[in-house]
Amino acid sequence: MQYTSTRDTKKSFKSADVIKAGISSDGGLFLPEYIPKIDFDKLTEMINKNYIQRAIDILELFLTDFTVDEIEQVVSSAYNHEKFDDDRIAPLHKLNKNTHILELWHGPTYAFKDMALQILPHLLVKSAQKTGDMSKFAILVATSGDTGKAALEGFADVEGTYIIVFYPEQGVSHMQKLQMITQEGNNVAAIGVIGNFDDAQTGVKAIFNDREFNEKLNASSIKLSSANSINWGRLLPQIVYYISAYVDLVKSENIKMGDKVNVVVPTGNFGNILAAYYAREMGIPIGKLICASNANKVLTDFIRTGIYDRRRELKKTISPSMDILVSSNLERLLFELYDRDDHKIKQMMDLLMKKGVYEIDAYVLEKLQSTFYASYADDTETMKSIKAVYDEYHYVVDTHTAVGLKVLEDYRRETGDNTMTVVASTASPYKFPESVLSALNVPIEPGQDEFSLLDVLSDISGLAIPENLKKLKGTEIRHKMVCKKDEMKKMVEDILIYRN
Ligand SMILES: *Cc1c(COP(=O)(O)O)cnc(C)c1O
User: Fold this and answer.
1) For residue 172, is it within any domain?
2) Is the whole-model pTM more than 0.90?
3) How far is it, in rounded angstroms, from Cα 165 to Cα 177?
4) What CATH code is carried by the domain that includes residue 392?
5) What span, in angstroms and rounded, lies between the C-alpha atoms of 372 and 286?
6) How far apart are CA 464 and CA 459, in angstroms?
7) Are 149 and 173 in contact (CB under 8 A)?
8) Where do the Tryptophan synthase beta chain-like PALP domain residues begin and end (predicted)?
9) pLDDT (tens digit, 9 = 90+) per residue, 188-238?
10) What's the pLDDT at 309?
């Protein structure tokens, strides 16, 4: 299978090249030339397979230039019990008869980003080997909190790579920041940017698109690559857990093969929900894709009106990993909805960059709304959702998952559709103890040590405190760098060229 770019369909690449490059040189995103199908027989065979075997079955369809052996090596280095604290890797938790929570936070950093970022470094190194590429790969990441740590953890000490993470200095939770600035490894850097996530993401994109700078790096045998969800190697592993969840629902006899399920995804950069869309395109019986936003509800407005308008203030919320106004992966969905019209995509993306707004055609909006539903939860509603779920089910969810559950309620109220639903749970509640505890009306003293909150949360939830969070207490801070948004390139240059 070959890959192409959303902004130039005349281009054709192998998957190994796409994974190495991250983003196309025309500014577009890579995607497969067609979406392979998976039939019910194949899904039925998966019922008695474990997560690793299911992942191999699915990755094989997309990575046709890899051997099955290579795929197996890559997958089993990622999804094992040294890295994940649950052997099922992405288990379902049944909340009630038609709602299942897909727990995507059993990896080493307790957010769903691990599902992809534990595997991406192995995919990248394998892609370099296969193509005889001796360069070192410098991974640049802009993070709204969880990607940064997951990428640092995934790439730390991986031979032939550097990893540099930019996070909004004031825009991530205390726990998220602590996770990043204590990261060990001799190829890692975490840098605070004075600005918000969009500033960090724009800065990283500008570095990727700076031809002169890239040539300078290439002269030192360094290539830039991306671990953000614009990289196809990030999206692909995310398709696996939606398919695996469907198979698990059949296995547990909650549905019959062929029954429809709806999927709810707390959304920021549109990567996770796009993976669910691809699973649907492959033939998984998914009904509605329910897109849940926080108060930064650009996507809700877009899906409801067809107008994408980023011209608004980014709000800081208690679900910081969704504080985003430019959802990069939407470009891939638009490409599909416009029947792969690269000119149209280029025009709209240019408009977004220059004017901050674009509008899709009425027939495309109709297609969009036939598959997607969207709503949002502000912070007050998010807190209420955490409390309501705990009171009714004694199950503690994090702030992002709570946004998803509130939006599911909106959906069911508005449509009366009570189809079996899978809610993607994107982070462990332990990553956001302060917000979660205040939602549960637990009194918190101002300035109370966050680690004592973990103990309280453990008492309430009955869940053990994740080891890697417990360990953070008193760990040495290793990364103290902070820069302005126009200094990011210089930071990268210093680290990659002058320091090595
Ligand atoms: C990254 C993240 C999201 C948003 O996912 P996208 O793929 O960017 O839409 C939601 N919740 C959590 C906890 C995250 O880390």
Assistant:
1) no
2) yes
3) 11
4) 3.40.50.1100
5) 11
6) 9
7) no
8) 100-422
9) 999 999 999 889 989 998 998 899 999 999 999 999 988 888 899 999 999
10) 97
479 part of a folded domain: no
Range of the domain at 310: 92-109+238-468
* Ligand 1 contact via 165 beta carbon (within 6 Å): no
Surface-to-core class of residue 445, CB atoms within 10 Å of its CB (0-12 exposed, 13-18 middle, 19+ buried): exposed
Which ligand 1 atom is at minimum distance from the Cα of 238?
7
Mutational test site, ligand 1, from 102, 120, 426, 436, max ligand atoms within 8 Å of CB: 426
> Ligand 1: does its nearest atom lie under 6 Å from the Cβ of 108?
no
CB of residue 426 inside a 6 A radius of ligand 1: yes
Ligand 1 site, residue 435, Cβ cutoff 6 A: no
Count of domains forming the chain: 1
406 lines ligand 1 (CB under 6 A): no
In-domain check, residue 442: yes
Instruction: Write the pLDDT tens digit of every residue in 164-191.
Output: 999 999 888 888 899 999 999 999 999 9
Closest CA to 314 of 367, 354, 268, 348: 268
Tens digit of each residue's pLDDT (9 = 90 or more) over 320-362: 989 889 899 999 999 999 999 999 999 999 999 999 999 999 9
C-alpha distances (whole Å) from 485 to each of 144, 229, 432, 465 are 15, 21, 26, 36
pLDDT tens across 61-119, in order?
999 999 999 999 999 999 999 999 999 999 999 999 999 999 999 999 999 999 999 99
Centre of ligand 1 to C-alpha 388, Å, is 22
Percent of the chain predicted with pLDDT > 70: 100
In a domain, 429, yes or no: yes
332 in ligand 1 pocket by Cβ < 6 Å? no
pLDDT of residue 500: 61
Look-up of token digits 């707390």: 266
**Token digits of residue 251:** 């296995």
